[in-house]
Amino acid sequence: MIILINQNQAARYISICIAHCGTLAALPILVAWVTNNVGGHTKRAVAVSFVSAVGQIGGVLVPQIYGEIDKPTYRQGYVIASILLGCTLIVTCILRFCLAKENHRRDHLSNEDYDREVAGRTCDRHPDVRYMI
């Protein structure tokens, strides 16, 4: 938000560096979260590839949202990036809540429910699997 408010070039540059460090640190955490919560080699490979592909879309979108028309403040680009970061935070919180709820449900299965769920379930669908949160 410093980028949107402040017109001092040094403050803007420092805030971009700090924001960049935070977004780069999230990538290994996201990949680890996906690989730990998706079972099966093929399913895991597809999930990691999907996460990587979605991340690479930024290379196509960034030149479109940081256009020449917004020079030198690039207000539209920063607002869109902030909104997308906020959406990412919300989706992450929702996913964490859903995974915790599923772990809780699996922890409290009765013997009959457990036997019914075990039949034909493999990988991350098996009731013994707990999601990492």
Tell me the strand percentage band: under 5%
* Biggest beta sheet attributes: none
**How far apart, in Å, are the first and last alpha carbons?**
29 Å
What's the helix count?
6
Could you say how many structural domains there are in total? 1
Overall average residue pLDDT: 87
Task: Label the structural class.
Answer: mainly alpha
Q: Give the ordered list of helices and strands.
A: HHHHHH
Tell me, briefly, the overall form. elongated
Parts with pLDDT < 50 across at least 5 consecutive residues: none
Give me the Rg, rounded.
20 Å
What fraction, in percent, of the residue positions are helical? over 70%
Membrane topology: Multi-pass membrane protein
Main location: membrane
Transmembrane segments: 12-34, 46-66, 78-99
Subcellular location: Membrane
Give an account of the 3D structure:
With 133 residues, the protein is an all-alpha fold. The protein has one domain. Helices cover 74% and strands 0% of the residues. It has 6 helices and no strands. The chain has helices at residues 2-5, 9-37, 41-56, 58-65, 75-107, 111-118. Helix 2 (9-37) packs antiparallel against helix 3. The chain starts with a helix and ends in a 15-residue tail after the last helix.
